[in-house]
Design goal:
The chain has one domain: Ferritin (Up-down Bundle), CATH 1.20.1260.10. It is about 70% helix and about 0% strand. It is built from 4 helices and no strands. Helix 3 runs antiparallel to helix 4.
Length: about 140
């Protein structure tokens, strides 16, 4: 995977995360809503930085879709938290790919964001995993 491909995937993943957090954040209240708003800002910031890395690598950042198909219903707080956990968990692998395709500070940043995404996913209720997003192997 080239750096352009890796950072383009990050931009797309962050666009989806911004959409998901925008929807899910409106379904939670209190401290959960504050965490959702903080997460939304993190995803927006990460999207901006990743878009600049696409450009710096010689590519053109993809535009955000007008809407995204959500993987589950988001009618109640439990479902909203599950969605945010799923989105953050999925970003772990995307950032790991970007770290593998990068060097220097860009690699360090991608690795930090992968770890931060895993922590945020667990905070929303995702189970801890050695390799987030990996399916358990059949034994």
């Amino acid at each position: 995977m080239t750096p352009v491909e890796a950072w383009t995937a990050v931009v797309a993943g962050e666009d989806a995360a911004v959409y998901a957090y925008s929807v899910a954040g409106g379904r939670v209240r209190g401290s959960a809503q504050q965490r959702a708003l903080a997460g939304l800002e993190v995803h927006r910031s990460n999207r901006s930085r990743a878009a600049s890395l696409v450009t710096a690598s010689g590519g053109t950042p993809p535009p955000a879709a007008p809407a995204y198909e959500l993987p589950e219903e988001v009618g109640v707080p439990r479902e909203a938290k599950a969605l945010m956990a799923e989105v953050d968990n999925a970003l772990v692998a995307v950032y790991a790919d970007a770290a593998a395709a990068s060097t220097g500070e860009d690699r360090r940043w991608a690795a930090r964001v992968a770890a931060d995404s895993a922590v945020r996913a667990v905070g929303w209720g995702a189970p801890t995993q050695a390799f987030p997003t990996a399916e358990p192997s059949a034994q």
